[in-house]
C-alpha cells in the first residue's frame, strides 16, 4: 500500500497505480442524464452597490445570471467579491455557472489526475453533485477558493495560517516577511512568541533581550501598513504568549495601555475613530492577543498557590507569581479592552492527532484552526437549514443520512484541493501537504435550533448541536480513512498513528456518553455512533488521509452567499431582519424560522399569525398574544430585551467542542455592566468544560473607560491650590432682548428633540435651549438644567471649543444613527449636540483640530486629500477671529427649524434595524466599503451590505 500510494499522498499530479481502484461516488441530489443547471430557472439581474452615506457607486455590473431563488444580497456579494476578470472586459465572469464551473472543473481534473475516482462516470457524478450543492447553497468553500481556483494566479485555497518564530533575529525578520506576504494575499495568520527570550534574560553579548512585546510593535506596524496599502479592512493576526513566559504581564497590559492612550488623544482633539487619521499612532491594534494557559496554572489559580515564570533558555523558573493575581490581571485587561483571550494548552494538545511531529502552540486569527506550526487549513461550511425536513405527517426531522453523504462529498473535494493548491511559503506548503489539514464546519445553527423549537441555551439545543457536530466529524474521518485506502494516508501518519487512533477513540467515547434529549437529536446521535464505529474500524486498517477534519469558522461572507440567517455557531441576531428587494429598496421581515418554531411548539395557524404580527410591531415576543411564557426562551437572540446570557454561549461551545478536530471561532458577548469577576468565571468555566479557546467582548469596553482613582486624587489636590492663586473673576455678558438663532430638529438613536442656539448680534454663541421628551419628565428637566448651565458658562466667557472637547465622544443611550447628513452617527445626545454646535459656530481651523467636519468637507478630503475649502469657499472673516464667540452667526440663522427630506431613522442592515426597534446601540464598526453597520461573525465583524469582513475570510 505504501509503495502504491506514496506519490498521490504527497499531492503529486501523477496517476494512481493499477492497484488503485479509486472511490465510487454516490448520487445524492442529481438525476442521471440531467445537468443540475437544467433543473433551475435562471434570470438576469443588475448589480449596483452604493455607499448609502454619500450615494457613490461602489460596484456595478449589469446583466449577471443567477437562479431565481437566490436573494438580492447573495447575488450582490458573489458578483462583487467572487467573479473574476476586469469589470467591463470580455474576460469578466457574468454568470454563476461560470464561477461554479471554474472551481468544480479544477477539482474534478485534479481528482482524476491523482487517482481519486474509480471511473470517468464517478468523476462526472462528483462534478454534478458538487455543482448541485453549490448551486443550491447546500455548502460553500471558503473565500480563497472562489478568489483563486481556476485562475491564472496562484491557486491558494487556504484561509487559515499558523507561523512560527524562534529566538533569533533571522527568524524574527522571517516572521515579518512571511506574515506580510499572507496579509498581502488578503488572509491572516497566528503564531506563538514564547520561544523569544524575555526582557528579563540576557543576550549572548551580555545585554538584556528586547523581549517579544517589543518585537510585536514591528509586526503590528507592518500589518497596519500592508492593510492600508492594499485594502480597507484590517489585517487579521493572532499573537499568543504562554502563561509561564516572564513577559506575560507586559503582554497582558499592552492593549490596556494603548486604550488609555486612545482616550487621552481623543480628549485632546485627535481623530481616534476607527479609520481616523490619528489612530495609526496607537500600537498593537492589528492583532488579537491570547494567553496560552496550562492545567498547572489553572490548578494554581484554583488552589490559590504560586506559579513559576520560566526562562526561555533553560526552562528554569526565574520568578514566582501569585496565580490568582495573574489570572485577575488577564480578566481585568479583557474587561477594559477585550484582550487578551485565553487558550487552554493541555486541552488543545490532548486532542492533537500528530504530537510526535510537534506540539500545537498557536491558532489562526479567529482561533478555530489549531495544529502544527507553519501549516494551513482550507475551510468549507454546510448550511444546516438545508437538511431540516418535514415528513408526511408534518413532523420535523434532521436528514442525517443526506447530511452524512454531503459531508463525504465535501471532504473528498477539500482533500483534492491540497493536490493542486499553492501556498504563501515553502514551509507552509510542505507541512500542509504532509498533514493535509481540513476544516469542514457549518452555518445556520442558530436558525436551525429556533426552527426546531429549541432554545439556544437549553439542553435540547445543545444535544442537537452536539449530535450534528459529532456526525459531521465522524463522517469526515470515515471518508478520510476511505481516502487513505485509495490514495494513501497523510505522510505524517505513520509516525503519529497511535496518537491519531487515540484521539479518534476519545471522540467516539465522547459521542457514546453524550446525553440524548428528544426525537430530533436521537436519530442523529445514532448515525454519529455508527460513523465513529466505522472510523475506528477503517482507521485501524488503512489509517487516515487527513490529520485534521473539522472546525467551526465564522462563515462570514460565505454565510451570506448561502443566504444563511446565522453564522457559524452563533445564535440568531434578532427576530426581525432587514431584507433587500429586487429592483432596489428594502423591507423588514420577521425571520422565516419563527413560524416554523411556533408550529413545532404546537401553535395553530391563527395563533402563529398573531404572534408574528406582534413580533413585527415590537421586535420581540414579550406579551405576544397566546404565546406561553415558557416558550419565550426559544426566541432569545444575541441582541434584544431577551438576549442569551454569556454562559449560555459558553455552554454551547462546550457541547460542540468534543466533536471537533479544531476549535470554535466565537466571541462571548457580555453586557457593559459585566464585572471582572464574571469574566474570571467564564475563563475558569471554559477550562472546566473542555473548551479549547475563549474570548470575551464587553459592550462599549473600547471607549470611555473611567479615570483611575489616582488621577482623580491628583486633580483634587491641584485644583484648590489654583483657586487660591487666581484672583480673576469673570463678568457675565448677557444677550440682548432680540438675538439671532438657529432651531434644529434632530433624531439620535430614535429619540427626537429640538435645539435652539442663540448668539450675540456680532459676537458668537451665547445660549442653548434643549427640548426633549414630555414637559415634566426627568429627561426634560435634566435637559433644561443642562441648557442653563451651558448658557451661563458661555455668557461668562467659557469658550465653546472647551465644551465641544469635553462633551463630544461621551457615550450613553440613546445613541446611534441620526437624521443629520453631516453627523450620521452619534454616541449620545450630548455628543451630537456639541458636534452640531461646533459645525454651526466654530471656525474651520478650530473644529478641524477637534476632528469635526461636515459631510462636504469629508467628501473634499476623499477627493483632494484636504478638508480645507478653496479660497472662494473659505470664511476668511470667521478664521480671522481668535475665539468662537467672535464667529458671525450663519446667514441662514433664523428661528425656522432645520428640515430634511430624509426619514428620521433609516436602516441599512439587520443590526441597524435591531437598534431602531430596541432603542439600543450595537457596539460594532461601520463598514469601510459601504458605510453599513456591521454585525459580529465569530470573532470578526461582517457587513451584510457588501460582504466585507473586519479580518476573516
UniProtKB/TrEMBL annotation:
Occurrences of domain Ribonucleotide reductase class II vitamin B12-dependent N-terminal (ranges): 47-137
Keyword Oxidoreductase annotated: yes
Q: Where is the composition biased (Polar residues)?
A: 891-902
| Ranges for domain TSCPD | 739-839
Q: Which reaction does it catalyse?
A: a 2'-deoxyribonucleoside 5'-diphosphate + [thioredoxin]-disulfide + H2O = a ribonucleoside 5'-diphosphate + [thioredoxin]-dithiol
Q: Where is the Ribonucleotide reductase large subunit C-terminal domain?
A: 158-697
Pfam families (alphabetical): Ribonuc_red_2_N, Ribonuc_red_lgC, TSCPD
Cited InterPro entries: RdRp_reductase_class-2 (IPR050862), RNR_2_N (IPR013678), RNR_lg_C (IPR000788), RNR_NrdJ/NrdZ (IPR013344), TSCPD_dom (IPR024434)
Q: Kind of enzyme, top EC level?
A: oxidoreductase
Cofactor field: adenosylcob(III)alamin
Which UniProt keywords are listed? Answer: Cobalamin, Cobalt, Disulfide bond, DNA synthesis, Nucleotide-binding, Oxidoreductase
**Listed EC numbers:** 1.17.4.1
Region (Disordered) residue spans: 1-23, 862-911
Q: What does this protein do?
A: Catalyzes the reduction of ribonucleotides to deoxyribonucleotides. May function to provide a pool of deoxyribonucleotide precursors for DNA repair during oxygen limitation and/or for immediate growth after restoration of oxygen.
Tell me the protein family, please: Belongs to the ribonucleoside diphosphate reductase class-2 family.
Q: What name does the UniProt record give this protein?
A: Vitamin B12-dependent ribonucleotide reductase
Species annotation: Streptomyces yatensis
Amino acid at each position: 500500500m505504501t509503495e502504491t500510494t506514496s506519490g498521490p499522498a504527497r499531492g503529486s499530479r501523477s496517476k494512481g497505480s493499477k492497484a488503485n481502484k479509486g472511490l465510487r461516488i454516490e448520487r445524492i441530489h442529481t438525476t442521471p442524464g440531467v445537468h443540475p443547471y437544467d433543473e433551475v430557472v435562471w434570470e438576469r439581474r443588475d448589480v449596483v452597490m452604493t455607499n448609502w452615506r454619500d450615494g457613490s457607486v461602489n460596484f456595478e455590473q449589469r446583466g449577471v445570471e443567477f437562479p431565481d431563488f437566490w436573494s438580492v444580497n447573495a447575488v450582490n456579494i458573489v458578483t462583487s467579491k467572487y467573479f473574476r476578470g476586469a469589470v467591463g472586459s470580455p474576460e469578466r465572469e457574468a454568470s454563476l455557472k461560470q464561477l461554479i464551473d471554474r472551481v468544480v472543473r479544477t477539482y474534478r481534473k485534479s481528482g482524476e489526475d491523482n487517482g481519486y475516482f474509480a471511473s470517468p462516470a464517478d468523476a462526472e457524478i462528483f462534478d454534478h453533485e458538487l455543482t448541485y450543492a453549490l448551486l443550491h447553497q447546500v455548502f460553500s468553500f471558503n473565500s480563497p477558493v472562489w478568489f483563486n481556483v481556476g485562475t491564472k494566479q496562484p491557486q491558494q485555497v487556504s484561509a487559515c495560517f499558523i507561523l512560527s518564530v524562534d529566538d533569533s533575529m533571522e527568524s524574527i525578520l522571517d516572521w515579518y516577511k512571511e506574515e506580510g506576504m499572507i496579509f498581502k494575499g488578503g488572509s491572516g495568520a497566528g503564531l506563538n512568541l514564547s520561544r523569544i527570550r524575555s526582557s528579563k534574560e540576557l543576550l549572548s553579548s551580555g545585554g538584556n533581550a528586547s523581549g517579544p512585546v517589543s518585537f510585536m510593535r514591528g509586526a503590528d506596524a507592518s500589518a497596519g501598513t500592508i492593510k492600508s496599502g492594499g485594502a480597507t479592512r484590517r489585517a487579521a493576526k493572532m499573537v499568543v504568549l504562554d502563561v509561564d513566559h516572564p513577559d506575560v504581564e507586559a503582554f497582558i497590559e499592552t492593549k490596556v495601555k494603548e486604550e488609555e492612550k486612545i482616550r487621552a488623544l481623543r480628549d485632546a482633539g485627535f481623530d481616534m475613530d476607527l479609520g481616523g487619521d490619528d489612530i495609526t499612532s496607537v500600537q498593537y491594534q492589528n492583532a488579537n492577543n491570547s494567553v496560552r494557559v496550562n492545567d498547572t496554572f489553572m490548578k494554581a489559580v484554583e488552589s490559590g498557590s504560586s506559579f513559576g515564570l520560566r526562562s526561555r533558555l533553560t526552562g528554569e523558573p526565574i520568578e514566582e507569581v501569585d496565580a490568582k493575581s495573574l489570572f485577575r490581571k488577564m480578566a481585568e485587561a479583557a474587561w477594559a479592552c477585550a484582550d487578551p483571550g485565553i487558550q487552554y494548552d493541555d486541552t488543545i494538545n490532548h486532542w492533537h492527532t500528530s504530537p510526535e511531529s510537534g506540539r500545537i502552540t498557536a491558532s489562526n486569527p479567529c482561533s478555530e484552526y489549531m495544529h502544527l506550526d507553519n501549516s494551513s487549513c482550507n475551510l468549507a461550511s454546510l448550511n444546516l437549514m438545508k437538511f431540516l425536513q418535514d415528513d408526511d405527517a408534518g413532523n420535523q426531522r434532521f436528514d442525517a443520512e443526506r447530511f452524512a453523504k454531503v459531508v463525504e462529498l465535501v471532504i473528498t473535494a477539500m482533500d483534492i484541493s491540497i493536490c493542486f493548491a499553492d501556498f504563501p511559503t515553502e514551509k507552509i506548503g510542505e507541512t500542509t501537504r504532509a498533514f493535509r489539514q481540513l476544516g469542514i464546519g457549518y452555518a445556520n445553527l442558530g436558525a436551525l435550533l429556533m426552527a426546531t423549537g429549541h432554545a439556544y441555551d437549553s439542553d435540547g439545543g445543545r444535544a442537537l448541536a452536539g449530535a450534528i457536530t459529532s456526525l459531521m466529524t465522524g463522517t469526515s474521518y470515515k471518508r478520510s480513512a476511505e481516502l487513505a485506502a485509495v490514495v494513501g494516508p497523510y505522510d505524517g501518519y505513520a509516525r503519529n498513528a497511535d496518537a491519531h487512533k487515540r484521539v479518534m477513540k476519545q471522540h467516539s467515547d465522547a459521542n457514546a456518553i453524550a446525553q440524548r434529549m428528544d426525537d430530533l437529536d436521537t436519530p442523529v446521535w445514532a448515525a454519529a455512533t455508527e460513523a465513529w464505529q466505522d472510523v475506528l474500524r477503517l482507521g485501524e486498517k488503512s489509517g487516515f488521509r487527513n490529520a485534521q477534519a473539522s472546525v467551526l469558522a465564522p462563515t462570514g461572507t460565505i454565510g451570506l452567499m448561502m443566504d444563511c440567517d446565522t453564522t457559524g455557531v452563533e445564535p440568531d441576531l434578532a427576530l426581525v431582519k432587514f431584507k433587500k428587494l429586487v429592483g432596489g429598496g428594502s423591507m423588514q421581515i420577521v425571520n422565516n424560522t419563527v413560524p416554523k418554531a411556533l408550529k413545532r411548539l404546537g401553535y395553530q395557524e391563527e395563533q402563529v399569525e398573531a404572534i408574528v404580527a406582534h413580533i413585527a410591531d415590537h421586535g420581540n415576543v414579550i406579551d405576544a398574544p397566546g404565546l406561553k411564557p415558557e416558550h419565550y426562551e426559544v426566541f432569545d437572540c444575541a441582541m434584544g430585551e431577551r438576549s442569551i446570557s454569556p454562559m449560555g454561549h459558553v455552554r454551547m461551545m462546550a457541547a460542540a467542542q468534543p466533536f471537533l478536530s479544531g476549535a470554535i471561532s466565537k466571541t462571548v458577548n457580555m453586557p457593559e455592566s459585566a464585572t471582572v469577576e464574571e469574566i474570571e468565571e467564564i475563563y475558569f468555566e471554559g477550562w472546566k468544560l473542555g473548551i479549547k479557546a475563549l474570548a470575551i467582548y464587553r459592550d462599549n469596553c473600547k471607549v470611555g473607560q473611567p479615570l483611575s482613582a489616582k488621577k482623580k486624587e491628583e486633580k483634587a489636590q491641584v485644583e484648590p491650590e489654583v483657586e487660591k492663586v487666581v484672583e480673576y473673576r469673570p463678568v457675565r455678558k448677557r444677550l440682548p432682548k432680540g438675538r439671532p438663532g438657529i432651531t434644529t430638529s434632530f433624531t439620535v438613536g430614535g429619540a427626537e428633540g429640538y435645539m435652539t442656539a442663540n448668539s450675540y448680534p456680532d459676537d458668537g454663541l451665547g445660549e442653548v435651549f434643549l427640548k426633549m421628551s414630555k414637559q415634566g419628565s426627568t429627561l426634560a428637566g435634566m435637559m433644561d438644567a443642562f441648557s442653563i448651565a451651558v448658557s451661563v458658562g458661555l455668557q461668562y466667557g467659557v469658550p465653546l471649543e472647551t465644551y465641544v472637547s469635553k462633551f463630544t465622544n461621551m457615550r450613553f443611550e440613546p445613541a446611534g444613527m441620526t437624521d443629520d447628513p453631516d453627523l450620521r452617527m452619534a454616541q449620545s445626545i450630548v455628543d451630537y449636540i456639541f458636534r452640531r454646535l461646533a459645525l454651526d459656530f466654530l471656525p474651520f481651523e478650530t473644529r478641524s483640530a477637534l476632528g469635526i467636519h461636515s459631510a462636504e468637507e469629508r467628501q473634499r478630503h476623499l477627493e483632494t486629500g484636504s478638508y480645507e475649502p478653496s479660497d472662494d469657499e473659505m470664511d476668511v472673516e470667521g478664521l480671522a477671529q481668535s475665539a468662537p464667540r467672535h464667529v458671525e452667526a450663519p446667514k441662514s440663522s433664523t428661528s425656522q427649524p432645520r428640515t430634511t427630506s430624509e426619514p428620521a431613522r433609516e436602516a441599512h442592515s439587520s443590526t441597524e434595524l435591531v437598534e431602531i426597534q430596541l432603542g439600543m446601540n450595537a457596539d460594532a464598526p461601520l463598514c469601510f466599503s459601504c458605510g453599513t453597520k456591521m454585525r459580529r461573525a465569530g470573532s470578526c465583524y461582517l457587513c451584510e451590505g457588501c460582504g466585507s469582513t473586519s479580518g476573516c475570510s
